[in-house]
Amino acid sequence: MRFTNIISPCKLICNLDLETSLCKGCGRSRDEIALWARYSDAQRAFIMTELPERLISLQNKNLNS
Asked: Into how many domains does the chain fold?
Protein backbone atom coordinates (compact mmCIF):
# COMPACT_ATOMS: atom_id res chain seq x y z
CA MET A 1 0.00 0.00 0.00
CA ARG A 2 1.35 3.42 -0.97
CA PHE A 3 0.58 6.43 1.18
CA THR A 4 0.48 9.90 -0.30
CA ASN A 5 0.82 13.21 1.46
CA ILE A 6 -2.52 14.91 1.89
CA ILE A 7 -2.28 18.57 1.05
CA SER A 8 -3.94 20.69 3.70
CA PRO A 9 -4.75 24.40 3.69
CA CYS A 10 -4.33 24.51 7.48
CA LYS A 11 -2.31 27.52 8.65
CA LEU A 12 -2.40 26.51 12.33
CA ILE A 13 -4.74 29.43 13.05
CA CYS A 14 -7.63 27.33 14.28
CA ASN A 15 -10.33 29.84 15.14
CA LEU A 16 -13.91 29.31 13.98
CA ASP A 17 -16.09 32.27 13.14
CA LEU A 18 -19.23 31.80 15.25
CA GLU A 19 -21.63 33.11 12.59
CA THR A 20 -20.32 31.25 9.54
CA SER A 21 -18.66 28.25 11.28
CA LEU A 22 -15.66 28.75 8.99
CA CYS A 23 -12.08 28.68 10.21
CA LYS A 24 -10.55 32.16 10.10
CA GLY A 25 -7.18 30.63 9.22
CA CYS A 26 -8.00 28.32 6.32
CA GLY A 27 -11.65 28.96 5.42
CA ARG A 28 -12.84 25.39 5.90
CA SER A 29 -15.99 24.47 7.78
CA ARG A 30 -15.87 22.38 10.93
CA ASP A 31 -17.10 19.33 8.97
CA GLU A 32 -14.52 19.85 6.23
CA ILE A 33 -11.75 20.01 8.82
CA ALA A 34 -12.98 16.86 10.56
CA LEU A 35 -13.40 14.88 7.33
CA TRP A 36 -10.40 16.23 5.41
CA ALA A 37 -8.35 13.02 5.52
CA ARG A 38 -11.34 10.98 4.33
CA TYR A 39 -12.11 13.15 1.30
CA SER A 40 -10.87 12.10 -2.11
CA ASP A 41 -8.20 14.16 -3.85
CA ALA A 42 -10.93 15.57 -6.11
CA GLN A 43 -13.09 16.60 -3.16
CA ARG A 44 -10.17 18.31 -1.44
CA ALA A 45 -9.17 20.05 -4.67
CA PHE A 46 -12.71 21.39 -5.13
CA ILE A 47 -12.82 22.72 -1.57
CA MET A 48 -9.39 24.30 -2.03
CA THR A 49 -10.74 26.31 -4.99
CA GLU A 50 -13.44 27.80 -2.75
CA LEU A 51 -11.20 28.78 0.16
CA PRO A 52 -9.76 32.08 -1.16
CA GLU A 53 -13.26 33.51 -1.67
CA ARG A 54 -14.38 32.30 1.76
CA LEU A 55 -11.38 33.95 3.42
CA ILE A 56 -12.04 37.22 1.60
CA SER A 57 -15.66 37.10 2.78
CA LEU A 58 -14.52 36.50 6.36
CA GLN A 59 -12.05 39.40 6.17
CA ASN A 60 -14.70 41.73 4.73
CA LYS A 61 -17.17 40.66 7.42
CA ASN A 62 -14.64 41.44 10.13
CA LEU A 63 -13.82 44.85 8.61
CA ASN A 64 -17.50 45.77 8.55
CA SER A 65 -18.13 44.64 12.14
From this structure: 1
